[in-house]
Amino acid sequence: MVQRLSLWEPLAAIEAIEKDGGVIITDFATADEVAKVTADAAPHLRADATEHEGKRLEPTMRRCYHLFGISETAREQWMQQPKLLEILRHFLGTKSRPYNDSVFGKIATDPILSAANTLDILPGAGAQALHRDDFIWQQKHESHEQTGYCVGSDVGMGILVPGVKTTADNGATFVIKGSHLWDHARVPDYAEATRAEMDVGEAFIFLSSTVHAGGGNQTEQQRPVHGFFFCRSYIRPEASLLFFSISFEWQPGGV
């Protein structure tokens, strides 16, 4: 099982993430806040369905991009929580002592938003392939299984906030605990995964090096999930990769 902790225990949450690669926060939001963010995203989900009708690559999924700008609740109440920022800074804050103007100075930068969106997983949707989110930045991983987690080795983190109660039946996220410690060559298997089942108001916070996958929706009800993704200050945000000048080509079986 994925560890479950309160947001008011940030040090315990940090310890759990270092150990397992992710943690469920049990008191991340209220049910009313979740309903408000879901309502904020709804018109954009409907527009996405209309715009891509008949030509969608994933006909069982609708997307609302740019949720950070669309939802004041998500932006001002969720993502500004001091305890959440403490967790993000621990893993993604960057410090250096560059030499400049005859002295060694100190520079510290906080994480930045990489992407924020709502995914609406419709009935009949299949499961994602197991993956690490940091593949978009071509990250390669060395094993930390013997040494333990190395703070500073990750470049991104994700926060998933379900719009409805998530179960194995409607697609709760597969998570392989400890996979953030694996080297790059290890091949994951669903048999190694547990499920991040959550109630409304909870959130799953995880490292971009943690192997995971969205589950398939085998129910008759849709499953909206709000996703917020952060990266180090010097990393190009995912939204930029998707919408601007980067050419991104995926070739299965490459070395």
Please give the largest β-sheet: 7 strands, mixed
Radius of gyration: 18 Å
Let me know the average pLDDT: 91
What is the terminal separation in angstroms? 33 Å
As a percent range, the share of helical residues equals 10-25%
Strand order within the widest sheet? Answer: 1-2-12-9-14-8-3
Reading the helices and strands in chain order gives EHEHEHHHEEEEEEEEEEEH
What characteristic shape results from the CA principal axes?
A: globular
Structural class: alpha+beta
Number of helices, counting only DSSP H or I runs of 4 residues or more: 6
Strand content: 15-25%
Uncertain regions spanning at least 5 consecutive residues: none
Could you characterize what this model shows?
The protein has a seven-stranded mixed β-sheet with strand order 1-2-12-9-14-8-3. A three-stranded antiparallel β-sheet has the order 11-10-13, with no helix packed on it. With 255 residues, the protein is an alpha+beta fold. It contains six helices and 14 strands. Helix content is 24%, strand content 23%. It is globular and about 65 Å long.
